[in-house]
Amino acid sequence: MAQPIQLTAPSQVSYLKPTGLFINNEFVPSISGQTLSTVNPYDESVIDSVASVGSKDIDLAVASARNAFKSEEWQSLAGYDRGFLLTRLADLCHRDKHILATIDAWDNGKPYEQALGEDLAEVISVFRYYGGWPDKIHGQTIPTSEAKLAYTRQEPIGVCGQIIPWNNPVMMAAWKLGPALACGNTVVIKAAKQTPLSIPYLASLIKEAVFPAGVVIVVNGLGATAGAAMASHLDVDKIAFTGSTNTGKAIMKAAASNLKTITLETGGKSPLLVFEDANLGQAVKWSRVGIMSNMGQICTSTSRIYVQEGIYETFVEKFKQYTIENSIVGNQFDPQVNHRPQVSAAQKSRILGYLETAKCEGAQLVLGDDQPSPDDKGYFVKPIIFKDSNRDMTPVREEVFGPFVVTQSFKDQKDAVEKAIDTEYGLGAALFTEIITCAHKVAASIQAGMVWVCTRRYNYSHFAIPFGGYKQSGIGRELGEYALSAYTQVKALHVNLGTWL
User: Fold this and answer.
1) What are the catalytic residues?
2) I need a surface site. Which of 13, 127, 356, 432 has the fewest CB within 10 A?
3) Are strands 141-145 and 470-471 parallel, antiparallel or unpaired?
4) Which parts of the sequence belong to the Aldehyde dehydrogenase domain (predicted)?
5) Ramachandran angles phi, psi of 44, nearest 5°
6) pTM surpassing 0.90?
7) 46 - beta bridge partners?
8) How far is residue 408's CA from residue 410's CA, in Å, rounded to a whole number?
């Protein structure tokens, strides 16, 4: 067994950090012997290292999950009892929410208050929600004739590989684990290399909740090795991934090895439309929330803002001033701060690269020319706002994934919709208007998996509302009842009630 070690965060919260891989309800050393280091984005100090798995570790993990899936202990567990396990896990997450929130804030750089009040609140709600589903997942009878009984069964898919992103680690884990376990599957889940600490701690709570051994396997590792091995593995029946579109495409190709069921939640370039009749104060407020929350590291961030011509200049000025007044830069554990560092040096460099590209391509910089010196500690990027962009500019076409927004005017409703859907992505969108007919018509015309009207919450969606995208923003839906269909398969049974032939 791999022995835990004690870590103390800058907030002085201490916890026992599990080490190794979580296999068969125990933490064990990796076969590869390789490690990953994780860094505090605020000051670039190394927090610790974790085991990084190779293909042989994935083979062991998948075999353990397969054995658990076939075991009598898991197969014979009544739906009500599976639900009780999930509910108990929710209670344990509630008990240790301050630890899980501390880990994600430390590891990711996100505000502790956000990790606790938003991410962990959703983790608990998601597990409780799916805890109510297992004894309600069932088939139906189908009337055919007096001589035949036809009915269906909703059965689990099998071993599910799940790959989660770094921007909301423990929350994304709950989104995927909840429906998968509710439906009776077993899971091998891999955290992102940038944020490997919170999911092993969640695994320790899964053991404490007394899930059968092997039902949940937790590994850490690089996408090119561990993720690729999981996606192409012939004994993995389903793959679920949240991350970039390019990586999603690679996973989709690898999953063809045995025609895995796939769920992909990939990139976004979400538009936000502001019509002349909108409540300008609310539109400005929610526009800042839509792009600056979590330092823009949200797949549904409204990173393209289109404003009707008559109020465009006024909006841009108010948006700039409101962003300046409401952006306090600092460390993730300071409650007075609301703008923390990006997750990594690579992410910081990527965002600042787009800043220079936008200037070279002719967009007008409104805010963000006073970025920290490259010698300054921490992966900080101050809010960036451009005006007078156009469809051909690189930052208008590509996902930046940072506190970076481009703005442009539109003439009328038709022009607004055309500009909003002029993208390969279709994850989210938002619009502000006081005319209800305009709101419904425009929302229906936008090609996106979700549309916010006169609001723009940063945190995706409610746990019972489906989440997913159109076009190159993904395949399938997470959350709510909709996610259950992604983790079950239908079996039709035909029973002859007449004379046996």
Assistant:
1) 265
2) 356
3) unpaired
4) 28-492
5) 65, 20
6) yes
7) 39
8) 7
